[in-house]
């Protein structure tokens, strides 16, 4: 088995783990096969590269985690679609995806009023026990689930929200056009996380795969919180980018 000539990811001492060398070689095959093509069985790849099946399995597992391959139980492993790269902004999810040439949709899981616990009340600057509107929705791109979004809003401020909103549509667009809400700023934190069994089932993903957890508080021009949003995204299907400028 020949080791790839490039040094990306190769330690300075030059000793390359076998699985990493196999991973690099499989990446070369992926580029030739194209999206949707089936990868040869592990047994065949192990024979072809002259390594153990466990070595091939580890290489493929990392490529699945990175979103380069997609494993389907009972069917095999396939070259995955490129990741969807979503801009970090206060724009509507619907508008952002359509601008990138994808068709957005949402599957409504929960649309209800619940009392705010102490943590949620502090985030929204309301009294503990005050009613909040809770929307939980699976976010989809071209029919594929990519995220699970849980949004809480003060019910006292938005008492008619559940009466007029189509929960499968754009919350931002409805609040802007129908309720006159102005979005001024948001604080967003991004972490890595693992999905719970329930979340993995809703997102149709393996609970062992890493997820991107995003926590956001949005505010209006007066600084009053509008919403708290917890979004869990499939790390194998979506990435995020931000445009940064230097302070002057």
UniProtKB/TrEMBL annotation:
Alphabetic keyword roster: DNA-binding, Transcription, Transcription regulation
Gene3D superfamilies (UniProt xref): Chorismate lyase-like, Winged helix-like DNA-binding domain superfamily/Winged helix DNA-binding domain
Domain HTH gntR-type, residue spans: 16-82
Top-level division of the source organism's lineage: Bacteria
GO process annotations (BP): negative regulation of DNA-templated transcription
A single MF term (Gene Ontology): DNA-binding transcription factor activity
One protein family per Pfam: UTRA
Xref: SMART domains: HTH_GNTR, UTRA
Name under which the protein is recorded: GntR family transcriptional regulator
Organism whose genome encodes this protein: Dactylosporangium siamense
């Amino acid at each position: 088995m020949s080791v790839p000539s490039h040094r990306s990811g190769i330690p300075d001492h030059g000793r390359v783990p076998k699985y990493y060398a196999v991973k690099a070689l499989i990446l070369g095959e992926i580029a030739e096969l194209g999206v949707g093509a089936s990868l040869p069985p592990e047994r065949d790849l192990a024979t072809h590269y002259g390594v153990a099946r466990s070595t091939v399995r580890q290489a493929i597992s990392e490529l699945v985690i990175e979103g380069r391959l997609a494993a389907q139980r009972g069917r095999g492993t396939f070259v995955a679609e490129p990741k969807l790269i979503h801009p970090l902004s206060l724009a509507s999810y619907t508008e952002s995806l359509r601008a990138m040439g994808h068709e957005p949709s949402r599957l409504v899981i929960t649309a209800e009023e619940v009392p705010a616990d102490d943590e949620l009340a502090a985030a929204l600057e309301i009294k503990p026990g005050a009613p909040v509107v809770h929307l939980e929705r699976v976010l989809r791109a071209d029919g594929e689930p990519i995220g699970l979004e849980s949004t809480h809003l003060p019910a006292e401020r938005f008492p008619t929200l559940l009466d007029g909103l189509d929960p499968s549509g754009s919350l931002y667009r409805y609040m802007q056009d129908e309720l006159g809400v102005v979005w001024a700023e948001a604080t967003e934190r991004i972490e890595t996380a693992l999905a719970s069994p329930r979340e993995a089932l809703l997102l149709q993903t393996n609970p062992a795969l890493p997820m991107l957890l995003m926590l956001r508080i949005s505010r209006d021009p007066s600084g009053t919180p509008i919403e708290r949003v917890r979004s869990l995204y499939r790390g194998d299907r979506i990435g995020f980018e931000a445009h940064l400028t230097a302070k002057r």
